[in-house]
Amino acid sequence: MNGVIINQSSKGLINSHIINLTTNQGTVSDDNGKFTIQAKKGDWVQITNIQFLGKKIRVTNGIFKARFLRVYLLPKTNLLEEVEIKKKLKGVLSFDTANKQKDTIKDQMKSIVNYIMGLGFDNIMNMGIGKDERHLQKPTVTPGQLPGFKGVGGSVLIPYADLKKKRADRKFISFKEKFPKELKKIFGEHFFFERLKIPEEKYYHFIEYCTSLGIEELYKDKKHLDILKILLKASESYLHLLEKSK
Question: Which end is more exposed in the chain, N or C (fewer Cβ atoms within 10 Å of the end residue's Cβ)?
Answer without folding.
Answer: C
